[in-house]
SDR family oxidoreductase (Amycolatopsis heterodermiae), 282 residues
Amino acid sequence: MIVVTGATGHLGRLVVDGLLARTSQVAAAVRDPRRADDLAARGAQVREADYDRPETLAAAFAGAEKVLLISSSTPGQRLAQHEAVVKAAQAAGVRHLVYTSVLAADTTKLFVAPDHKATEQLIRDAGIPFTFLRNGWYTENYGQTVQQALATGSFAGSAGDARLGAAPRADFAEAAVAVLTGDGHAGKTYELAGDTAFNYAEFASAIAEAAGKPVTYQDVSPARHRELFVAAGLPEPVADMLVDADRGIRDGELATTSGDLSTLIGRPTTPLADAVAALVKN
């Protein structure tokens, strides 16, 4: 049995879909089973699993040979939630724990890195055979940026001309499916990002091409970038995280030449033009 946590999230649903195409032994572990009716209709077992209620995790992992721990999106609580999952997986005798970490988790200065680095250590210390999927940025992270560019003809950032190795969420989900259904991945750490990194000016050109209208990128200072986010109504902590992401791009922390993502999925990662076209349509 393969258990996927966070299965009603954007990434989780894609992973479950991919697994069901290969095996019927799939369990969707979710906080609210009522939101997983569509997964049940496609053949997945639905199990309640709330990171904040460790008592739900034992039943969720019963009979599991493999577990995909999709990282929590709750800042400040993430590490404790992950620890509960790791302990439950250990108690259930899970034979392979796959974790969605962040690109270069052990060296990056990204705001999300400490929790991921600590979770990786928790998993190592638990003694469960593991695979770390260190995911880079999803192109879907820029959905609102694309919509702003379509509405105004431009978008701002503070990454300069540095390059970003983003890829669609579906590519990362496909990699997770490959690891969960394949052999030889235990003990491996994969650095996952798109094959061809791009800068924001190239991203603007891709939006323009897909939309058939001019779009430009305006590079601003980090301080000004933060001001723009706050003026747009974003909470200051969110503004800080987004500005830090552009710092990470400037410092080369969100691109890699590992080729791990295309190797796992057995094809080149989705081209930028195709990824952006999908965002423009949405």
